[in-house]
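Table 4 source record.
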Amino acid sequence: REPLKAIEQFQTENGVLLPSLQSALPFLDLHGTPRLEFHQSVFDELREKLLERVSAIALEGKVEERYKKLEDLLEKSFSLVKMPSIQPVVMCVMKHLPKVPEKKLKLVMADKDLYKACAVEVKRQIWQDNQALFGDEVSPLLKQYILEKENILFSNDISFLHNFFSPSPKTRRQGEVVQKLTQMIGKNVKLYDMVLQFLRTLFLRTRNVHYCTLRAELLMSLHDLEISEICTVDPCHKFTWCLDACIREKFVDNKRARELQGFLDGVKKGQEQVLGDLSMILCDPFAINTLALSTIRHLQDLVGQDTLPRESPDLLLLLRMLSLGQGAWDMIDSQVFKEPKMEAELITKFLPMLMSFVVDDHTFNVDQKLPSEEKGPIPYPSTIPEAFTKFLQENRIACEIGLYYILHITKQRNKNAFLRLLPALVETFSDLAFSDIFLHLLTGNLTLLGDEFALEEFCTSLFDGFFLTACSRKENVHRHVLRLLLHLHHKVAPAKLESLQKALEPTKQSGEAVKELYNQLTEKLELRKPSPAEVTETPSMELPLPTVPTPASR
C-alpha cells in the first residue's frame, strides 16, 4: 500500500491546486478520461495564454520595461528550450526581443534543430554578424532565381505575344525568391547590403545579367512594403522607382526622361560610386529592353520629322543610359566610377544608317503602289552597307540597337528587310546575336513569318546562313533552333526539314536538354509521316484524285 500512498501524495502536491477541482476530477474518471489527457489539455491552454501574454508584453508599457520583462522571462525559461512542449514559448520570447543576448544567440546557432526552429526575427540577429551563414541561406535562392529565368528563356511555348518581357514588374516581384529574400531582410539594412554584395560578386564572377534584375526587384519589393529604413539609405531608390514605371509602360516618356536625367546629372563629386549601382540597375535586361524599344520608336519619329539623331536630346539620353547599363560589368570590375564615353560615330553615322533603312522600306512600299512602267518593279535593296556590319561587330551599343531594329522589322512581318540585314548577325559584338534573350525574342517574332518557312530561299538564309553557323559551337543556339522547329516544323518544306533534321542531330558532347528537344522533334516528325500501309493500298475501284497545286505563299 505504500506505493499507492506515495502516488496519491505526489498527485496532491503537483496537481492543479484548485479546491473546486478536487470534487470534479472523479467525474472525468467515470468518463474514462485519463488524468494525462486532462493535464495535457490544461497545459496546452496555459501555453496558449502565455504565448498571448508574451506578445502583449512586447507591445505595452515603456520600451525598457517591456524588454526587461521579456529578458527576465527568457533567462528563466531558456534552460527548457529543448523541451518540445516549452520550446514555442522560449522561441516566442526571443522573437519579440530586438536584441537577444549574444550568449543565447550563440547557443541557438550551435544547435541545428534550435536554429531551424527559431523565428526569422531571431535568425536576422544571427545572420547580421555571420555573413557566411547568411550566404548559405541565400545561395540556393539565388540559384533557383537564375534557373527560373533560364527556364522562361528556353520555354517550349513560343509566341510573339507572351515572351520573357511580358510580366509586369509588380507581377515579377511576387515571385517566390524575391518574396523570401524580402522576408529574410526585413528592415535590416546590414542584411540588405550583404545581399547586394552577393549579387555584385556573382554578377562579376558570371556576367549573368539576371542578377541585375534581382537587384532592382528586391529594392522595389521593399519599396512596395514601404520599408523606409532601407529605401531612404539606398541612393538608387528614386532612380529605380522612376525606371520601374518606364519598364511597366515599356517606354521612356519625356517627363520621366527628364527625371532620370536629373538623377544622373545629380551625382556629386565624391559620390561617383553610386554610378556602379545605377549601372547595375540599368544593366537589368528589362531596363535595356525598355531603353532599346524606346530608341527604335524615337528613330522612327525622327524619320517623320526630318530630324537627325544628334538633334534629339531625348534620344541622346536613352543612349547615355544604354551605355551606362552596358558598361556595368566593366565599371564594377575596374572600380573606376565614371560614365562611359559615347562614340560620336554611333550618333553621326550608325543611327542615321538605321534611319535610312526605315526610309528604304517607305520608298519600296510607295513604289509597289505606283503603276508599274516598262522598266518593271523596283527590287528591294539587297545589300547592306559594310559600315553597318562593322558597327555590329565593334560597338556594343550599336549592336544592341541593331538587334532590336531587326526584332522590330520581324514583328512587322517585313521579310525583305529581315533577309537583307540577317547576314550582319553572323558576327556581332561578343556574339550578342546568339545570346539567349535575343534568340528567345527572335524565335517568338519569327512565328509571325510562319508562311515564309515553306520557301527554300528563306529557310536557307535563316538556318544555313545564320543559325547553323553557330549551332556546333554554341549549345544554346542548338536549343533555340530546335525550339523553333518544334513549333513551326509543319510549315517547313519536307526536303528542307529532312536536311535540317540531319544537321541538328546531337553529338556525343551535346547536353541533355538538346537531346531531349531533338527526340521531341523526331517524335513529332514521325507522327506526320504517312504509314507505309496508307501509301501502298489504294482501293482498286477509286481513281486517285488529281493533285491540285497549292497557291504559292506570299
